[in-house]
Amino acid sequence: xxxxNRCNLHTxxxxxxxVGLVSSALSQDSGGGNNGGGFDGPTAPSGQSxxxxxxxxxxxIVGENYVLKPSDxxxxxxxxxxxxxxxxxxxADGTITLALIGKVKVGQMTVGEAQSLITDLYDRDFLVEPQxxxxxxxxSPKFVRVLGHVGNPGMVDIPPDKVLTLIDAIxxxxxxxxxxxxxxxxxxxxxxxxxxxxxxxxxxxxxxxEAKDYTLEEGDIIYIPxxxx
Length: 229
Description:
There is one protein chain. By secondary structure, the chain is α+β, with helices and mostly antiparallel strands. The protein has a five-stranded mixed sheet with strand order 7-6-12-9-10, covered by helices on one side. It has a three-stranded antiparallel sheet with strand order 2-1-5, covered by helices on one side. A two-stranded antiparallel ribbon has the order 3-4. The model is unreliable at 1-7, 9-15 and 21-58 (pLDDT under 50). Among the domains are: 73-138, wza like domain (wza like fold); 143-224, Outer membrane lipoprotein wza domain like (Outer membrane lipoprotein wza fold like, Roll). It contains four helices and twelve strands.
């Protein structure tokens, strides 16, 4: 009986010591935020200001070189000026209407250029050294049409701030079907003057790396004809 009691006592001492170690570790973790090594919150995304007030607008992550277009939606924030916070859609003529300064044309400007222009307009007559932040929250739809013998013909969206290649578009349509002629794709394009041109593309060579891939433009129509047997 004495041997059993001593073993139990020894086990109890080890258990108490282990609990003490765990408690000590938990205490150190809970206080770690004060020593500079803890996680103090999310880091502001690159290209966006992380220290301009408590605005909560969520914008798309695009570069400052993204060119604004009609139907894009942008969110405007001015540091410490909550009354000027606004989300607005760019009109067909490229303008937006903002508090105090009225109509401003931002269409065909980059995000960075629009932000600088709005900053200058507020700084000129209304605010002292305003800190303006412009975010794109929604993009105007841009797409191409893929028709003919592909797995899933239809419209393919052009991603914002990126190019869409012919390989990308055909891949999103599940590729050329077994009845399609991948040597004689037709691309029809209408330029800004309304002039339409069509050209034939050997997609098979592009897939093999024997020819350069094509960068598609908004409104392009890609047609894959039937293969002649």
